[in-house]
Amino acid sequence: MTPLARRVLTAALLLAVFVPAALWAPAWLWALLMAAVVGAAAYEWATLSRFPVTAARFYAVGLAAGALLLHKLTGADWPLVQGGLVLLALAFWLVVAPLWLAGKWQAPQRFVRAAVGVILLLPTWVALLYLHARGPAVLLGVMAVVWIADTAAYFFGRQFGRHKLAPTISPGKTWEGVAGALLALALYAAILSQYTAMPLLPLFLMLAGLLYLSVLGDLYESWIKRVAGMKDSGTLLPGHGGVLDRIDALTSTLPIATGMLLWLEHAL
Questions:
Q1: CA-to-CA distance for 22 and 123, rounded, in angstroms?
Q2: CA–CA separation, 264 vs 42, rounded Å?
Q3: Cα–Cα dist 79/74, whole Å
Q4: What is the DSSP letter of 77?
């Protein structure tokens, strides 16, 4: 099987599981499935951070189980927990991550890496639960921002890419790819504005902000892999690398998109 065929087959299998779950899974099953995704990504993060194998396994299981317990035990305070974790993600992605990349920090200390893994993955899990509770159209509509941006950036970058975006971090990414992603999201915003109550310009600006975060999340994981000397975060997904490779942009976009929706809910 060729690498492209393996990649397409893996993507088809993932969609065959994810889309029905997004459409029809009850809340408890969705929480379990997403906790499993978080656990797999946490294990890969711990591996990238040079945790011993046993410690990486405990970290992964602990983070997945901790997420489920947090949801179960907070009860009526769950909305406050959601908001707090969204704010934590907002602070990390708007302040810490850009400084991290600008300073090319390596932060090899395991306790720092363990804390960052929690900041990356727990708000993402919270966002997945929040968006799923708002309905499959909201969940898939938000995730489509990343999927559309990634696809457009890939094809525009291959066709027109000349100027490197961050050559010392991720040599394959280009400014032309980003421009193509922005163009594709402008079209997506025009389509969405026909089916929502939001005017086109504010919707486009929100999607443009999510594009920035998507690129930032991708670059951040690329830097962590470069520091670790690894091409992929794992081998769980043939043709795609690891789970963290597939959700890197989602870790930066989903919590902030959730924050935007929470703000809109309270503003309207």
A1: 18
A2: 31
A3: 9
A4: G
Could you say which residues of the chain have pLDDT below 50? none
Contacts 24+ apart (CB under 8 A), 262-267: 262/82, 262/83, 262/86, 262/130
Q: What is the pLDDT of residue 1?
A: 62
Which residue type occupies 265? E
Could you tell me if 140 and 18 are in contact, meaning their C-beta atoms sit under 8 angstroms apart?
A: no
pLDDT of residue 138: 92
pLDDT, position 29: 94
Residue with tokens 């999201």: 185
Per-residue HEC secondary structure of 159-204 comes to HHCCCEEECCCEEEEEHHHHHHHHHHHHHHHHHHHHHCCCCHHHHH
Residues 223-229: contacts with CB under 8 Å, at least 24 apart: 223/100, 223/101, 223/104, 223/169, 223/170, 224/48, 224/49, 225/48, 226/169, 227/106, 228/48, 228/49, 228/50
Contacts of residue 66, defined as CB under 8 A and 6 or more positions apart, other chains included, come to 122
End-to-end CA distance of the chain: give it in Å, rounded: 52
Give 97-100's long-range contacts (Cβ < 8 A, gap of 24+).
97/216, 97/217, 97/220, 97/252, 98/216, 100/220, 100/223
Return the exposure string of 127-151: e unless at least 16 CB atoms fall within 10 Å of the residue's CB, then b. bbbbbbeeeeebbbbbbebbebbbe
